[in-house]
């Protein structure tokens, strides 16, 4: 049985995503104030306004190269690009979120500045089933995560995935979309439990260029089911980062990792 707080949380999420559908449909953009500056977005809320990872990334030089893996609708990519010469490469396999990122970037005059790749990153090149959730930010390569908080799987799509090492090194080109990815100064990862796959596929890039890593760790319970703890995932991440000589500062769900 679902307890009252969980039920209310599910209702809140459902209301939020319906409101987002409405603001995009009506073209209602509002200013979002963040630790990295103010930008305009069609999103009804500003969940990353005081994000500690966003604050750390905003300290990068104005000409830095940032890879935004799991860019969603641009809550990190857009404020980090605005008013700077930073090169932002955004990876977002969810078509709905990618379309909304383009709209938000265009609203801020940044559609030519943000290099959007509509693919996923993993530890092997190929394709994976992607579970598109009725709560778009829950969409993931894991069905349970796509059904958190009462969401449903709206569609299952086979999407291409690449190793970041192949994109940065050029070994996946010309089949990979877009130009070769430049060596990064920082990599932000927010991929709904798929973090280890992204890092393993970027091992050579990380070893060679030692970028700042900002990882949003989706831990706790999967699918909103408290009986299914996935804390082992966080332990595996800590081990991988330690093995690659990265120090980890945990700021809640956001890990700031320096090599």
TrEMBL record:
This protein's record includes keyword Methyltransferase: yes
Gene3D superfamilies: Vaccinia Virus protein VP39
One Pfam family hit: Methyltransf_21
Keyword set, alphabetical order: Methyltransferase, Transferase
Record has Cell division as a keyword: no
Ranges of residues in domain Methyltransferase FkbM: 68-247
GO molecular function: methyltransferase activity
GO annotation terms (biological process): methylation
InterPro entries hit by this protein: FkbM_mtfrase, SAM-dependent_MTase, SAM-dependent_MTases_sf
NCBIfam families listed in its UniProt record: fkbM_fam
Full protein name: FkbM family methyltransferase
Organism per entry: Halorubrum glutamatedens
Upper lineage: Archaea, Methanobacteriati, Methanobacteriota, Stenosarchaea group, Halobacteria
